[in-house]
Amino acid sequence: MSEAGGDRRFRILLWIVAVGFFMQTLDSTIVNTALPSMAKALGESPLSMHSVVIAYSLTMAMLIPASGWLADRFGTRQVFLAAIVLFTAGSVACAFSTTLSQLIVSRIVQGAGGAMLLPVGRLVVLKSVSRDQFLPAMSFVAIPGLIGPLIGPTLGGWLVQAASWHWIFLINLPVGIAGVIATLMFLPDSRDPAIGRFDMVGYLMLSVGMVALSFSLDGVTDLGFERATVLVLLLVAFALITGYGLHARRHPAPLFPLSLFQIHTYTVGLLGNLFARIGSGAMPFLIPLLLQVGLGRTPAEAGMMMLPVAAMAMTAKRVVTRLITRYGYRRFLVTNTLVLGALQATFAATPSLPLPAMLLLLGCYGAVNSFQFTAMNTVTLRDLDRAGAGSGNSLFSMVQMLSMSLGVTVAGALLGAYTAHFGPIVPAGALTAFRATFLTIGLITCLSATIFWQLGPGVMAGAPHPDDDEAG
């Protein structure tokens, strides 16, 4: 093959992975603006629609740890192809769902495909490029993934207004068909013949533990569980997660070795991500819902009002490295986390704010949230060595998606509980419930600053990781 032909195939490979990453991250947020319209069409309350978001992100959190092993065992091309097919089929099934239960099942199928798109795509790039090409290649792949969650709410609102909510899923169909063809033609197939046995016991412990934790938080308000059932689910979740810790100490090749937690920055960063991202995961669900249910905005208006969040998030990336370099990770993250929590709580005043002040608040939130993601991600991954990079990054990706799921779960549970306390779903009762929810979410975020305080004062900025943001 000529050098020009090789370069062309390499560029196409990067585009395939980048578009797959874009599809996966876009669908993490595109439904948020459409939830009230979907609820109306399905005959449901808008406040019960958070299960649609949770089903997608929780499925991804469960399956991400298995994606790397599946690619090494069955081949990167086959697994990436299966991911696109599952994601596209799930998207079509979502569009044709006529009940909330059907939509949730379809989102699970979609999430199963999405869980493999990013990790397997990263693995394809890692195995296809030289070391000196890896950083620019991953930077190129990451850009569409960063754009996806930023334009998702705006695009979702526009599609609902211009056509119907079904099109937020149907737009994946032509992209998915093109992705299948391109994958068959251009994606290399590689596998690891020496791959060992998958740690199925450890995987089931973590997966079932995550599901039990999510169900326990969602059980009282949305699923109608009795308190005893919720308590049992919580105990099951903590027992399984504790059991995994004991299992990993004895297993010769655990899913996530406990040696990862000997790296102080990784441990603090992982725990900080888990709790700080609960608030960041709740906001993309709460804000469009507030604008439409509480303030009577149309889906298109709600989507357009999210543009300052996206614009300032992109702008903030130009200065965040200099700020971290100047102040160090501990001082920057503690301060920024407190500011982020205060801004989240400030959304409680949104109904009484004039439009310019509301847009300013949204823009400030987008910038500070972007600061938070970049700082949290880089401090978590900065000290991983090559031997622990694979499992460390996989665990980190799982925690990202789990915290996003928990954020929506917590937001939905709080909103449901406050609504039941303050009154039925009428504008006055809904606004009071929203105010209380934003205040509580802000408090949770502020408390997570205590985790980042555990960083050493001498931990300074290094080079940002190429994937220093996420689908949030």
Provide a descriptive summary of the structure in words.
- The protein has 472 residues and is mainly alpha-helical.
- The chain has 3 domains: 1-197, Growth Hormone, Chain: A (Up-down Bundle), CATH 1.20.1250; 200-254, no CATH class; 257-472, Up-down Bundle (Growth Hormone, Chain: A).
- It is 78% helix and 0% strand.
- Helix 11 packs antiparallel against helix 16 (355-381), helix 11 (264-294) runs parallel beside helix 17 (386-422) and helix 15 (329-346) packs antiparallel against helix 18.
- The model is unreliable at 463-472 (pLDDT under 50).
- It is a multi-pass membrane protein.
- The chain crosses the membrane at residues 12-35, 47-67, 79-98, 104-125, 137-159, 165-188, 200-217, 229-247, 332-349, 355-374, 395-420, 432-453.
- InterPro entries: EmrB-like, MFS, MFS_dom, MFS_trans_sf.
- Its main location: membrane.
What layout of secondary structure does this protein have?
Elements: H1 3-29, H2 35-42, H3 50-74, H4 76-95, H5 100-128, H6 131-162, H7 167-170, H8 172-186, H9 200-219, H10 227-250, H11 264-294, H12 299-305, H13 307-316, H14 320-327, H15 329-346, H16 355-381, H17 386-422, H18 427-447, H19 449-452
Helix pairs in contact: 1-5, 1-6, 1-8, 3-4, 3-5, 3-9, 3-17, 4-5, 4-8, 6-12, 6-13, 9-10, 9-17, 11-16, 11-17, 11-18, 13-16, 14-15, 15-16, 15-18, 17-18
